[in-house]
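User: Show me a protein chain along with its predicted structure.
Assistant: Here is one chain, sequence first, then structure tokens.
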Amino acid sequence: MQCPACHADDDEVMDSRAIDDATRVRRRRECRVCQTRFTTYETYDAGEPDADTIAQQLRAVARWIQRGAVRADGERAPIDDARSQPPDHPHGGDRG
């Protein structure tokens, strides 16, 4: 964090407190160069999932549909032991 007085990047956090239902954090800082104290507010932002995460989740759902664990209409299908195994598992799963 850059000091507002001397613009040094060397500060120490003196105190931290959660505010606004723990979605924000207030920090009291002190510059180690000029000893100026200042307050910063940090907001937690979960952000949007990246494309790789979404693609990975979609592949997992597709595998469940292929195994018959979930029907294409989104309803759960009954699962027997053979279908609960991955398709390449030696004990079943791929009824081809």
